[in-house]
Amino acid sequence: MTKRKNIKPKIAIIGLTSCEGCQFVMLDQGRRFLDWLAKVQLEEFRLVEDEPILAEHYDICFVEGNPVTKANIKLLKEMRCRSDKLVVVGNCAALGGVWELKNYASKTRAIKAVYKKLKVANPDIKEVDNFVKVDYVIPGCPIDGDEFIELANQLLKKGSFRIPQNPVCYECQSRGYQCLLQQEEICLGPITLGGCKAVCLKSKQACWGCRGLFDGAQVENFMNYLLKHFSREQVYRIMEVFGARDTILKRLEEMQGKKNRKFGKSKVNKIDNKIKKLK
Amino acid sequence: MNNEIQVFLNKLSEEFFLFAPQQDGAVINIKEVRDIGDVDWSGRMPTNTWKALFLPAREKMFDISDGRLVKSKTSQPKIAAIGVNVVDLKALTLLELVFSRDVYYQERRCNTLIIGYSSSWPNDYKKYKIFSHNFEEDILEHLIFDIFIAQFAVGRMKIYSGSEKGQHILEEGGIKDYEHIEFAGPISEKGPDKKMLLLKKKMESSQGKRIWHELNKICIACGKCSINCPTCFCFDLEDSVDPDNPERVRKWGSCFYNDFSLVAGGGKELDTVSKKIFFWYYHKFVRIPFEYMMPGCVGCGRCSKVCPVGIKIEEVLKKV
Question: Which residue numbers in chain A have pLDDT < 50?
Fold first, then answer.
């Protein structure tokens, strides 16, 4: 029994296509991060090691970044096979990141503007959970250091974690920052998961939803409100920056679908849509 | 402000951290006083609330030493809250009742000096006037405060003390001309507020009314109103498992978030916006009056001011 206790959980921290900012946030925690590392067996840390050698089995794998290249996808799938739990870290992995901007605009035009002579692959950007099963998400661009340490400790202690489901508005209002929505700016605070200490709002930068939706976000009412005051283009543009648009619209559809089902309208809508397509 | 008061406050600042409403850009905010000249005596309603002084947004409940829970040993700083208007005093009186057995609140309260202030009524108070108030003296008897400064129209003012602590500090500060008012409980001799009882009755029977369906489509459940409400005292407990300092934190909760009514297994009582907002009103206008015989809403109008989608509490009440 004592022997078993001595076995530390094996950890891997890998980075796919990203700015590696989230891995730097981990390193920035200094002593606290090292203390946490002392309790685990760190097998893999792409940012600080020279030659990664894959172990056979990991208990927890942290994935940062977006699987953009084929090598990324291969590595991701490999890691999923070898790990018990897969935790995605940061906005790129969870929501698609800034790269997802090109999904919403013309993909071919974007690549021509960036790579003028080089020929590179130009895939659609998809979140990690499109490729493999994701167990937990640590959101943010970059992640919040205090939150990471807390959640990482929870993971070791009880094998799971839960982020309190409050919006950014909670963080913002309880710290007494000025409301930018009331100053006619598009701020996604009311539907975005809090826990970031409202750092953007502190410097009067509106929330662009890097942490994604929280459980209980009133997307429908909020969209109605935004579209009443701003054009659809403006609103979408803000939502696209951190790749949140597709998630928000998906939730919106779900909410509306749920409502329609209540009134038995879904069938009617489907038929309506079909008729529209035929036309 | 009067010279006498300036001198008094200067002396006070040697012992206390002073907090007072101050002009902050276009709005008035309650914050720590750097220069006594900055204090806003206009009597306008501040944007943020006093409750943060007594119930911080995050408060550590206890430490763990040798595997045991030990009450946190944090020394509370001595704070003087200056210029609390009558409406906010009413809210504090309610908090005092609710947290009468709460060690953390009481510890803070003991180290706090509440100095009330009124320059007639706060400017936009009449707009939000929900509960009938009559003469000032009648009101002061039913409020909790240590010192109260009442400013009348022509530079005339009167100073009251509401507690022994207040008397003591006034004497020390060299102010001899004051009147003592003994706290006579939060409810007036004529019985509970009639308007409050009427509202309670209306609210009780309003479930399912059209107004709640209308709000269901407008409210975005951001919870800003409840965070900025001087009487919203519900809280969440949050445990952190950091091995070096595991702690339990008490933080402001809001019934607009799913976490509020979440139970093991994932079920939640308040699953739609209309239920959430009705719950909020019901607590303010039915349950608090029922439990404490005091209105749960003091009519300060802060919730209307911070609402991004412009829900106005007075209009909702009219429709109810």
Answer: 1-2
Q: Pick the residue with more confidence: A9 or B177?
A: A9
Q: In chain A, where do the E strands start and end? A: 10-15, 41-45, 58-64, 83-89, 136-138
Q: Pick the residue of B58, B239, B241, B307 with the most A CBs within 10 A to test the interface with A by mutation.
A: B241
Question: How does B199-217 read in b/e, with b if 16+ C-beta sit within 10 Å?
Answer: bbeebeebeeeebbeebbe
- Please report whether residue A44 resides in a domain: yes
The CATH number of residue A113's host domain is 3.40.50.700
Q: Give the residue carrying structure tokens 């209540």.
A: A262
Q: What number of other Cβ atoms are within 10 A of residue A236's Cβ? A: 15
Shortest distance between the Cα of B29 and any Cα of chain A, in A, equals 9
Pick from A198, A258, A47: nearest CA to B271: A258
ipTM of the complex: 0.84
Q: How many domains does chain B have?
A: 2
CA distances from B58 to A118, B79, B105, B253 (A): 53, 18, 13, 10
Number of domains chain A contains: 2
Q: Which of B120, B155, B180 is the last residue of a domain?
A: B180
* Alpha-carbon distance B268 to nearest alpha carbon in chain A (angstroms): 11
Contact B141, B149 (CB under 8 A): no
Q: Tell me which residue range forms the domain holding B169.
A: 3-180
Rg of chain B over CA atoms, in angstroms? 21
Confidence at residue B35, expressed as pLDDT on a 0 to 100 scale: 83
User: How far is residue A90's CA from residue A145's CA, in Å, rounded to a whole number?
Assistant: 11
Mutate to test the interface with B, among A31, A157, A174, A201 (most CBs of B within 10 A): A174
pLDDT for the residue numbered A271: 59
For residues A35 and A104, state if they share a domain.
yes
Q: Which one of A109, A136, A158 terminates a domain?
A: A158
| B15-27 burial code (b ≥16 CB/10 A, e <16) | ebbbbbbbebeee
User: What is the rounded CA–CA span in Å between residue A95 and residue A97?
Assistant: 6
Per-residue pLDDT reduced to its tens digit, B260-296 = 888 888 888 888 888 999 999 999 999 999 988 888 8
Considering the domain architecture, whether residues A233 and A186 belong to the same structural domain is answered as yes
Angle at B25 between CA B24 and CA B26, to 5 degrees: 110
